[in-house]
Design goal:
This protein is mainly beta. It folds into two domains: about 290 residues, YVTN repeat-like/Quinoprotein amine dehydrogenase (Methylamine Dehydrogenase, Chain H); about 100 residues, Cytochrome Bc1 Complex, Chain D, domain 2. Helices cover about 10% and strands about 40% of the residues. It has a four-stranded antiparallel β-sheet, with no helix packed on it. The protein has a four-stranded antiparallel β-sheet with strand order 2-3-4-5, with no helix packed on it.
Amino acid sequence: MVSFLLLIKTSHSIEQYTAHGGPVKGLAVSASNNLMASASFDYSVVIWDLNPIKEKLTLIGHDAAVNTVKFSPNNDFLASGGDDNNILLWALKDINNLNEEIQPIKLGNHRGKIADLEFSNNGRYLISASWDGTVGVWDLKKRKQINSLVGHKGPVYAVKYSKDNKHIYSSGYDGDIKLWKANSGEYVRPIVKNGWGISKFEVDEKLNFIAFGSTDGQIKINKFDKDETILNIKEDRVPILSMYYLENENMISFGNAKGRMIILDTKKWSLVRDFNAVNGPIWDNILFPNDSSLIVAGLDDFLTRWQIFDFPPKFLERPGPARRFNPVKEVSNGEKQFARKCSVCHTLVENGKKRAGPTLYKIFGRKAGTLEGYKYSKALIESDIIWNEESINRLFDEGPDKVTPGTKMPIQRMKKIQDRQDLVMFLKKATN
């Protein structure tokens, strides 16, 4: 297995770890604290060893971006959910056999993308939040869905089990955190009505609080047993995208769409840290108690690790270095269209990094679905398309859903004829 591990140490105690070929959407740590998993836009899940952090294995099974990963509390399974609407289970007993490709168990699917997953504390059940507006309840022994909780108006963003497994909490676009009976799926009541969508939340019945982040940038801590606000922090119109609750260390962290990290002490409800951790959205974050560090995931191919208490007041300069899909230097219109539309999924070189799509090196004259070493969808393998000026132009004129139906390609089009022509000319020069 080829490892793309990169470790960079600076005076600011920042480390970067790379194993993906696209933005990283989700993170999780195993109950045994010896493994970490990351979910990416590149359709893959990477399992990492911890102590020290090192890429262990790449899992391939989704047909679109992977949004969320969770380890079961008994360390039997890793669950993943993505934009392909599917929930996959990966048997952790197989991860040490590096000579064979691990095949996932397809647990089931929703009618919309999967935004969040959560295991019950006994490891018997899994719940899923989906953009189809429902919460799925899955029995892992029977390998099937046993309930669908319907009540949210719009996408469901996050789900949690109560500590005793008797209740399910869910939040979504409608601004509610809803309470359900786990056994029957009966809706009980809303425990929060926020107005704006609630993207992430945590409930601690013992310490009597509900913490949540909303799509309008609000961080709010309420008492669990009554309608009383403990703390409210707000940055207008900058959505909160991630949260992590380190219960034993009394810390909770929030990451927003502009790279801001806020870490709070849950005993005193005081500020631990408030800083710019990355340039761009923080899709997920994890706190590590042993060395007081934080890992954040966002638009970069790599994970960024900070020492929470070691760095000086000035950390990152905005807007930061250019990313391949958002160049800051002056480039041709064709290269600009490639950067914006294609570069997240594709490279132009023969031995490109892992990406969601195959390299475009020498694409002209190549039959669709034939690049050796890339796992194509059945639709592309069976396609008769030959990639040339006409077919590439048509792909962005009509859209992949029309030209290559049933494939993994994200649906995007270019309305301007000149943009399509410039892209084709750039690709013809850059890929040969």
